Each structure stands twice: as C-alpha cells, then as structure tokens.
Amino acid sequence: MADDITKITVTQPDAETGNGEAAPTGPETGDKEIDWQAQAEDYRNLYLRTQADMDNMRKRLEREKAEFVKFANENVMKELLSVMDNLERALAHATANGEAGSGLAQGVKLTYDGFKSVLDKFGVSQVQAVGERFDPNFHEAVMQREDPDADENTVIEEIQKGYLLNERLIRPSMVVVAKRPAGDGEDL
Predict the structure, then answer these.
(1) What are 126-145's pLDDT values in tens digits?
(2) 73 in helix, strand or coil?
(3) CATH 2.60.120.620: does it fit domain 124-180?
(4) Model's pTM, two decimal places?
(5) Which one, of 36, 21, 39, 28, lies nearest residue 12 by Cα?
(6) How far apart (Å, rounded) are the C-alpha atoms in residues 48 and 95?
(7) Structural contact between residues 84 and 108, judged by C-beta atoms closer than 8 angstroms
C-alpha cells in the first residue's frame, strides 16, 4: 500500500482546449513522476544540516564573545602597567635611600599593593623571569652578560617586568641573559 502512495503522476492542463481540462495521460504526453517520499527525505536532511549549521554558528559566536570579553580591557591593562612600573621605581628609590619607613614611602607601598590586587582581580599576572631559562615567547633579551655562576641562556636580571592577561602575553619581560665567559669555551 505504501508503494501506491509514493508514485504520483502529475498532468498538465491542455493548452488547446483552454478550459483547464487535463490532457490524456501516457508516456507520449511527457508526464513527470515525482517521488514525494524521497523529496521529503531530501528536505528533512537539508533541514537537519541547516539546524546543525545554526547550532555550530551559535556555539562559535558564544566562544568568540567569551574571548572578546576576556581580553576586552587588554589595551587599558597595557597602559596601566607603566603606572605599576613607576610605583615600583618609587618604592625601590625609597628603600635605597633608607626612607622605607617614612609616611610617603608607606603611602606609595599601600597604593602599589592596592593597584596590584586590582590587576590580579582582572587576570593580570607577572611573567617569571630571573633564574628561568630564556624563552623568546615571554622574554625580550636586551643584553647578554658573562656570568660564570649561571647556566648559559639563563635570565640573570630583569630590567622591566613582563605581564600576562588571562595567560596571554601583553608585555614581555626585558631581560639580561647569561652567556659563557670568554675563554671558557669547550675545546673542539
């Protein structure tokens, strides 16, 4: 019974009679047989593919939005790092001059600590440099210095701190890298 429903013969009205009556059917009249079940399955598959595409697009847009929100304030954080550097310099100067206990130095220290906690809250963290092996992904070598006590290509001094925002580098550490002292090379 299902086979009787799947094949339907469609006829065109007779153009010569003009009264809209159907012309006789048969192979000589060019009748079209339409497989409605196959066509319905094609449309169903097209619908399912479209739904899957829409679902994938929605997920991709959600990922991109989350990524955008996560790093939206990257430029602001980069600019604030120079303020952090200046506070660190002020603290280092006060300590070097023996003024660490003065009211001004204590105020700068409190400001620095508060500023650092705000940066931490927004996902900013410091790149570890001194004592680490030089990594061009996180460090920018500005100088090499001979150091017999350090392994070659090890960071021995940090000139400017580097920072990450949510594990993405926003500023590399400017570092001094150890090299083997002259005349200390191995003979070949």
Answers:
(1) 988 888 888 888 998 888 88
(2) coil
(3) no
(4) 0.60
(5) 21
(6) 69
(7) no
